[in-house]
């Protein structure tokens, strides 16, 4: 199924960041929303088929096929609702803020088109509260009174798990931003009991481009199973830490080169944010990065946060600090997460700061296995994946630490970013 | 992870408060972690355990336990 394109768009990068911030600039680059091309019931189905054919996968972390989600929500028995998820509670990620700042109307076009595809007439744009971004988006939304949807900007508490999809739905429904037990999943029963499409804002921006330029155009970049372009946030010991638009399938070394290359020798790179995995260097230079798992650690781009660790830093100490943060960010609703994550964080701190005996080390392994898969949401699974990956990647350091020596890296300033206490909410309301 | 048909025991981890009555009634399928929360095998229940499992479901003070033909989550 091909669509005759009204405008040509180069297949090269950048795609998402080619337009402007203001509505007029955006329209002059990308043109009007192609709603008329997908009019009526048949048109909506064509739009879903186009996204399915494009092979777009979610950019919020899990990489689920977007077209399949659209089809499921569209097939519900009530009029659905769309949530555009721009909370970006991942501390090492800046891509969603960047996209919502540089190309807000591409995201909003995508949300309108996604709403059209599933038959929704309400879109809720969710961002973390207390940011100038929220105020700016509020102003941009006033420019879009002619959209066929009712917009609502939702300011979400600044908590790591508040951006998980069931937590967003819970917050909108009841003012409590903690995840809920599933089933039902939001796509079955979400906002006000209606089928709810929760998509990351970058995912929605790609939907806008696919609607305009087609599945074939989208597939000219990326891999067979992870096509298109994707945003990554690169930080740590690189010359130009920033957000970059890359093609899935690029190798880790190429991606770091895009950020100006390393500023000092590196020992490892964290890929996929704080639910991600450490990739050991030099072996990892040639690892292809996409939303498919690859390499010995099952590495995936996740939400695209990449942090380069200098050889002089201590990966165990870095991970121990993040494990503590993830423990503090537990919603404390499920026992294994509420009690397990602090226990794991304590054990890992003992390992990292050389107060560890073999019994502690064994207990840590046992606790990791005990906590995984036993929460209502994936928070404990993500946290234990990170800790496990650190124990594997930094196995040599671990031996040193077990002998009662710490590396000099323990006393270095932290590389992995954590939000300032002032920018973290205590509650869930 | 088996996806063969059959009844499975499942826990709602938010509702569960580690009362551990389920462990008393169905030790064949339930152990406790170090914080007292149940670790439950989600393999299909053998027929001779189904009635015991239903008794454990009925005895849970927070209604956190259920017997279901469909897995809520792939572990």
From TrEMBL, chain B:
Q: Which domain of life is it from?
A: Bacteria
Which SUPFAM superfamilies does UniProt cross-reference here?
4Fe-4S ferredoxins
| Pfam families, alphabetized | Fer4_15
**In its UniProt entry, what is this protein called?**
Ferredoxin
Source species: Phytohabitans rumicis
